[in-house]
Design goal:
Blueprint (H helix, E strand, L loop, with lengths): L3 E4 L1 H18 L3 E5 L7 H8 L6 E4 L2 H5 L7 E4 L8 H7 L2 E4 L2 H14 L3 E8 L7 E2 L3 H13 L3 E7 L12 H18 L5 E3 L6 H5 L9 E4 L1 H4 L2 E2 L4 E2 L8 E14 L22 E7 L11 E3 L5 E5 L4 E4 L12 E6 L1 H9 L4 E4 L1
The protein binds pyridoxal-5'-phosphate.
């Protein structure tokens, strides 16, 4: 059945080897591989579990982490825990990311109940303005560390930062070295040694590749770099990676010559947008049985370079195939590479079948 997301495990393994080489050999970091981009697909999980260079498997969703609990690798929860998921977090997660004392207290109480010690990474906000205690609020940072150290069932594991997600701030020597400084201040003040200083996601790996990762950063968390081969700071391809390990296939359900301008007064489309149409005259158009419920039309690239994506509704994708060298027919299948948003939606849609190569 189509639509279908084909996952090439051989290519993903190549990517894993490539990002591991950059992260570990060039960057001197431990490596957390992030599975949320593919909703922790079982085949992907097996690849990661059998790969010796993967130190942690991480995801933002507890439902995904549950599926590889007890698998032999350490697990990390990337999104700050909800109060309503605390017991699962303590049960299935080795290391959770935190920024709220109230949540840390809940974790401590629950860990006591389960007879466990739970590891915590304290998130520091260096200006991207998503999660974390703002780096200038040192009193709050120290208070959180103090609370962790005083909690019998919590182990203070280290600090981390997330960048380029909300504020699109790019990791550099100047902001990442603030994280290292914060770590040093905590170590001095409390006479402890941090196990982890996690320097960010796929937007930080370019620094490791250039040998510019500030000394003291000892972990990176990689999703997109591994799945799609992207350095997400500047959008370049990481050496040794491929961008076609994931291929989306969808089937043509209508193929007709039609004009490119709609007829009648133009209101708003199914998503409340006022569309703008380019007059291409009469064109050969294909409708594919896939839509915005399953993918992001802005985040898919046809392998046939002579195809243009014109638009989409919930269940239909409209293509201009006039210039293609191929003589498409109803029932033919068209293939696409994906960007991050396209991948996320395809992986999440239960209408997109997942297959392995
Ligand atoms: C999603 C996420 C990552 C992975 O991001 P990529 O850009 O896919 O590498 C890392 N850390 C946190 C906190 C995340 O939420």
């Amino acid at each position: 059945m189509y639509p279908r997301l084909n996952i090439d495990l051989t290519k993903l393994k190549e990517n894993l080897n490539a990002v591991s080489k950059i992260t570990k050999q060039q960057g001197g970091c431990s490596m957390m591989i992030v599975t949320k981009g593919l909703c922790a697909e079982p085949g992907l999980a097996n690849l990661l579990l059998s790969h010796p260079e993967v130190d942690f498997i991480a995801d933002s969703r507890i439902q995904n982490i549950k599926t590889f609990a007890g698998c032999g690798k350490k697990t990390a929860l990337l999104r700050l825990p909800m109060a309503s998921e605390i017991s699962d977090v303590v049960r299935y997660v080795d290391l959770s990311f935190n920024s709220e004392l109230a949540t840390i207290r809940l974790l401590d109480q629950e860990a006591e109940r389960q007879g466990k010690v739970h590891d915590i990474l304290l998130m520091i906000d260096l200006g991207d303005l998503r999660e974390g205690i703002f780096y200038q609020d040192e009193d709050q940072i120290f208070a959180a560390v103090e609370e962790c150290l005083a909690s019998k069932h919590i182990r203070f594991y280290g600090v981390g930062v997330n960048l380029t997600c909300y504020g699109a701030v790019i990791p550099k020597e100047d902001n990442l070295s603030v994280l290292v400084e914060t770590a040093r201040k905590i170590e001095e003040k409390f006479k402890i040694q941090l196990k982890m200083v996690s320097g960010g996601n796929s937007s930080s790996i370019y620094l490791a590749e250039r040998g510019e990762l500030p000394k003291g950063i000892n972990n990176l968390r990689l999703g997109e770099a591994f799945l799609l081969g992207n350095d997400t700071a500047y959008g370049t391809r990481l050496p040794g990676t491929v961008d076609d390990a994931l291929i989306l296939e969808a089937q043509i359900i209508e193929l007709k010559h039609k004009r490119s301008l709609p007829i009648g007064e133009i209101g708003v489309d199914a998503f409340g947008q006022r569309p703008v149409y380019e007059d291409r005259g009469v064109i050969k158009r294909a409708i594919l049985a896939i839509g915005k419920q399953d993918t992001d039309p802005e985040s898919m690239i046809p392998l046939d370079k002579k195809i243009d994506i014109l638009g989409a509704s919930s269940d239909h994708l409209i293509l201009d195939v006039s210039k293609s060298d191929r003589d498409y027919k109803v029932g033919d299948v068209i293939s696409f590479r994906l960007g991050y948003s396209g991948m996320l939606k395809c992986a999440t849609s239960r209408y997109v079948e997942k297959g392995y190569l």
